Amino acid sequence: MTTLTDIKNLDDIKLLVDTFYSKVQKDEFIGPIFNEKIGNRWPEHLEKMYRFWQTILLDVHSYSGSPFPPHKQLPVEKEHFDRWMAIFSATTDELFLGPLAEEAKLRGRNMAEMFHYKIDYFRNAAKNN
What we know:
This is Group III truncated hemoglobin. This protein has 129 residues and is mostly helical. The protein contains 5 helices and no strands.
């Protein structure tokens, strides 16, 4: 049995991101949404995710930009965010153990909640105009 260690470097970030999005692409519930939106740009998306998580978890400022706008028009509901979070947490737990792994799950959960809230807000604002 392999002893799990914490997220330590960019290689660990890449392992987490690649493993997670491999599962997302195959998921019957959220996979079609991701695959339709991203299309053949998966390598570009993964590179962006490496930089995003490296910035958040390792304090290496390699990501700049605003992560929300590309998600604003996605056809997603709370159930989609719940599935994203379940896959993300399970992937993190199967690969890593430690404070940064816990931080990744916390940040992922906070981001999912914020994105869901903002998407709902913009939808309701559009309905009321």
